[in-house]
Design a protein that fits this description.
The protein contains 7 helices and no strands. Helix 2 runs parallel beside helix 4, helix 2 runs antiparallel to helix 5 and helix 3 runs antiparallel to helix 6. The radius of gyration is 17 Å and the shape is globular.
Length: about 180
């Protein structure tokens, strides 16, 4: 069971879209201050758990990566602009990210596999993504004031550039080298 928990815990590292969104969201939540940290993190944790539970009930057949990368572009732009977001917009951004990452993190189902192993993987994913956002938000909270938050603004531009690169590579024609 511990192996499935760890597979879920590190699942986000297998999808570039998850990495970019989690990084950007963590920095954005930290950039918004202590209140932003509380409401943004709580919203993300609750909705990622909801999205993970939805994987057990519904199968959605559309590409989540594209939507996640578009969300990363928005998050990166908000970081670069360094806006003081109203709490409802931060909650909405964190909730959309949480639901999309949760839905896109369905564990592989093996016929005959016990449901406890599936739930262990889901719990690992919930904990791994939530800790990632928290561990990115805490240093961002400290870096939001020095030099007018320029470090976080630069990170926001990197989030935008990374999301664009991944999107371009997704749509680039695949050629086999001979």
């Amino acid at each position: 069971m511990a192996q499935f928990f760890l597979l879920g815990f590190w699942h986000f590292l297998q999808a570039p879209a998850h990495i970019v969104v989690l990084f950007g969201l963590g920095v954005l939540i930290g950039q918004q201050g202590r209140y932003g940290l509380r409401v943004g993190l709580l919203s993300f944790v609750m909705t990622v758990i909801g999205g993970l539970m939805m994987t057990q009930m519904v199968i959605i057949g559309w590409k989540h990566d594209i939507v996640l990368l578009i969300l990363a572009l928005i998050i990166g732009a908000l970081l670069a602009l360094r806006l003081n977001l109203p709490s409802w917009s931060l909650i909405l951004i964190a909730a959309v990210a949480g639901i999309l990452i949760g839905i896109d993190s369905a564990p592989s189902l093996i016929p005959g596999m016990k449901s406890t192993l599936t739930y262990a993987a889901l719990a690992g994913t919930a904990l791994g993504t939530s800790l990632t956002v928290l561990l990115l938000a805490l240093p961002s909270l400290l870096l939001r004031l020095p030099m007018n938050g320029i470090i976080l603004r630069v990170l926001g531009s990197w989030v935008t550039a990374s999301a664009l690169m991944v999107l371009v590579l997704m749509f680039a024609p695949h050629q086999v080298m001979q």
